[in-house]
Amino acid sequence: MENENLVNIDELLQEINVPCDDLNSEYNLEFSKNEEKYSFPNDYFNVLSPIEIREELVKILEHYNSKEHLLYDIDYEIYRKILLNKEDNSFAIDFNLVKKLDLSNFSFDNVNIRFLNFKGSKGVKINPQKVYNKDLSYCILEGAEVEGSFDDALIYYTNFKGTNGIEINPQKVRGKNLAGAVLTDTTITGSFDGTYIRGTEFTGSKGAIIDIGKIYLNNIEHTVLDDAIVMNNKIKPNSFREYNNVDFEEQSVNAKIKKLTRK
Questions:
Q1: Which of 89, 152, 157, 219 could form a disulfide with 180 if both were Cys (CB 3.0 to 4.6 A apart)?
Q2: Cβ atoms within 10 Å of 214's Cβ, excluding its own
């Protein structure tokens, strides 16, 4: 005897405008060119668990190829349970699929965003002070609207290219660690004394003044100093002991060091 409480998936998918003959068929999606709002049936959340709903959402997103982003009108707490892992608040769905959603009604507060690439996303708003552990390391922030201070935030290997209006005080970043960060399109508001900037990219940044003699370990290995003002450039950084073709005594104040040749 059939369980009357079970949701008919075929009917469900039809209700959210996803034609489907059976669970194994390919979705022939033909969404309107205009942005629309799609809602799951109210009783859907009373029958299936967030994990089961997540599985159905993945099926939809895997076959959705429109340039328009899908906007779901889902209760905030339920939406978080669908999209996030309970253990660490990281995304339980491949973020490349999540980026097909319009995330205007989703909050990134206390969400683990480490390693996420926001390029191509829509509706993403991030406050560095409110994301999980204030950790934005390894993120590509293009495509996200970032508002808030980076004080005590983790931003090593964070890519800021394509962002707007971001100001960073290196003295207030957690651990003074900006290693590998791409600071393009940012404005620097503090000194780099005692900071770790190995592999940091300054091209396209504003306000960066670097005293090589005062940065951590004098280490600017693989650092791109374009658009930064470099002081004390007669000091040979420790990191270049194994490199040649770099004459620091003849570098201009606005040093441009892009490529190093190992002996």
A1: 157
A2: 15
